[in-house]
Amino acid sequence: MKVASLSVTKAASTVSVALIRPPMAFSRSSYASPINPPLGLAYLSAALKERGHHVVCIDAVGEDPTRLRVQPELNCFVRGLSATEIVERLPADLKAVGVSCMFSQEWLVTRDLINRVRLARPDVFVFVGGEHVTAVPEHVLDTCTAVDAVALGEGDEVIVDLVERFCTDPETIPGIVYRVGEDLYRTEHRQRVRNLADLPFPDWESIPIEKYHEYESCSGVYEGVTMPILATRGCPYQCTFCSNPKMWGVRYYMRPPSQVIDEIEDYVRRYRASSIEFYDLTAILRKKWIHEFCDLYLERGLKISWSLPTGTRSEALDETTLKKLKATNCNYLTYAPESGSEDTLLAI
């Protein structure tokens, strides 16, 4: 593996980009398959649009969340649009395609989709990102020659660089692995986004969010139209079973509580949201932050419920904090004791 160097970003030019959330793939023995709006895709679309690029999002799950079929050769269920239907939705003037692959169990279905895209549009630039891709980028490139480049970790900045600069000087883009002929090149590590307040709000206008609302999508207690939100990124803990250290790193960054409240109010106005779900890895870590958030929630007169279905740490849940959560209509939270065995806790 060769390492390239970093240089100064060049000026951007407008590019037509398609961002794809592939259909979901999961075991036929699974007892549940949550259907959640693609928050990451919405953030990436917003980042590209802020730079003036033309973006089309194809959410295979959101377009048809009730369609469920068996993939016989993989012995799994697949939910959403077919690869053929996705390819048919690609714009005529397309220059680049970005595909998300969050879970390893979905790679074979995603790979098939990417190959179909390449067959139909041989001249477009194809890149992929997500948790699975970040964990095994060389494997992705080795097993799918239709992929030109892999984005590692957080995508808001690297996706802009890929769209604007890959065709001229890929070696100057930090945080990617890419191919030239039969060789793979890994560039320098990309620093995380530290000031989350600088990021635009997710671009839900490009996602079929209403179909998720019709499907009554939620991960916790359903109380009407539910919108996802992210208040923090990363997690300082290094659990051995978690992909966070590779995907996000162990630095923990928080948005200002007031900006999170602004986004919630925006969802109430635009979508008549009656519930908010936090998708954070570890939402409650700093008591000062969650206390300020709850105080602002009450000051702004918000009445909708909110929840922490993805989990949080129990250490910060003291009596004062729990009372504030209850006062602001937090109706559901999860946290994982992981094990009652001290030996197991030390091992993981």
Can you lay out the helices and strands and say which pair or pack?
Elements: E1 2-3, E2 16-21, E3 24-27, H1 39-50, E4 54-59, H2 60-63, E5 68-71, E6 76-79, H3 83-88, E7 96-100, H4 107-120, E8 125-129, H5 131-135, H6 137-143, E9 149-151, H7 158-165, E10 176-180, E11 183-186, H8 209-214, E12 226-229, E13 232-233, H9 244-247, E14 253-254, H10 257-271, E15 275-278, H11 287-299, E16 305-308, H12 319-327, E17 330-333, H13 342-347
Domain B12-binding: 21-173
Keywords: Iron, Iron-sulfur, Metal-binding, S-adenosyl-L-methionine, Transferase
InterPro entries: BchE-like, Cobalamin-bd, Cobalamin-bd_sf, Methyltransferase_Class_B, rSAM, rSAM_horseshoe, rSAM_sf
Molecular structure report:
- Helix content is 31%, strand content 20%.
- With 348 residues, it is an alpha/beta fold.
- The longest helix is centred in the C-terminal third of the chain and has 15 residues, at 257-271.
- The protein starts with a strand and ends with a helix.
- It folds into two domains: 2-186, Cobalamin-binding domain (Rossmann fold, 3-Layer(aba) Sandwich), CATH 3.40.50; 218-333, Transcription Regulator spoIIAA (2-Layer Sandwich), CATH 3.30.750.
- It has helices at 39-50, 60-63, 83-88, 107-120, 131-135, 137-143, 158-165, 209-214, 244-247, 257-271, 287-299, 319-327, 342-347; strands at residues 2-3, 16-21, 24-27, 54-59, 68-71, 76-79, 96-100, 125-129, 149-151, 176-180, 183-186, 226-229, 232-233, 253-254, 275-278, 305-308, 330-333.
- It contains 13 helices and 17 strands.
- Residues 1-12 have low confidence and may be disordered.
- The chain has an eight-stranded mixed beta sheet with strand order 1-11-10-9-8-7-2-4, with helices on both faces. Strands 12-15-16-17 form a four-stranded parallel beta sheet.
